[in-house]
Amino acid sequence: GAGVSQSPSNKVTEKGKDVELRCDPISGHTALYWYRQRLGQGLEFLIYFQGNSAPDKSGLPSDRFSAERTGESVSTLTIQRTQQEDSAVYLCASSLAQGTYNEQFFGPGTRLTVL
Amino acid sequence: GNSVTQMEGPVTLSEEAFLTINCTYTATGYPSLFWYVQYPGEGLQLLLKATKADDKGSNKGFEATYRKETTSFHLEKGSVQVSDSAVYFCALSEDSTLTFGKGTMLLVSP
């Protein structure tokens, strides 16, 4: 079946502009996660959604970052007033449910470059 | 807080060589441990996992044993192939989110 998809695959923007990144999880997966991978760094957790519960936003680096999810489907990550340090690959993952035993399936990522 | 430390790369090996990529972790409780792999041009995928002490995860000839006494989860493979060239990430989870190491690039030459 279809895996996690993300769009766009690449995004180049100017400093100060807003960007929206999209994630389509695997159908039936109730948990959805956003991570960021900056050059030379490991993946950093940003936010996760589980069903209709309030999202865990503890990893968002600033109030310029926000994310929404419609039910158990598509999620968008929005970065307002982008800065050069926001340049990274943004990865989305989904899993059947929350919990440490549920494998997270990752999308191919969106490479964001802020000039 | 939780953290994962893995050896820096790149690790460069000849085909059929033995591979070890070290990974140690710090956690407040009893995490599950994972190795993810990212092949060139592809997304991250789970390679193997272990959910409790002394468990051994294995897949595609790779193995890792959850060592609570040394807080380690080293990845090993007895004979690497060119197709194993990729970036390998060690990770842990105590709740729902994953904490990753920085990744180790493996380059295998024929």
Question: Mind explaining what this structure looks like?
Answer:
The complex is a heterodimer of chains A (115) and B (110). In chain A, 0% of the residues lie in helices and 46% in strands. Chain A is an all-beta fold and 115 residues long. In chain A, the strands form two sheets. In chain A, strands 2, 4, 5, 8, 9 and 10 form a six-stranded mixed beta sheet that branches. Chain A has a four-stranded antiparallel beta sheet with strand order 1-3-7-6, with no helix packed on it. In chain A, a hairpin with a 5-residue loop joins β4 and β5. The model of chain A has no long low-confidence stretch (mean pLDDT 91). Chain B has 110 residues and is an all-beta fold. Helix content of chain B is 0%, strand content 51%. Chain B is built from no helices and twelve strands. In chain B, the strands form three sheets. In chain B, strands 2, 5, 6, 10, 11 and 12 form a six-stranded mixed beta sheet that branches. A four-stranded antiparallel beta sheet of chain B has the order 3-9-8-7, with no helix packed on it. A two-stranded antiparallel ribbon of chain B has the order 1-4. The radius of gyration of chain B is 13 Å and the shape is globular. The mean pLDDT of chain B is 94. Chains A and B meet through β4, β5 and β9 of A and β6, β10 and β11 of B.
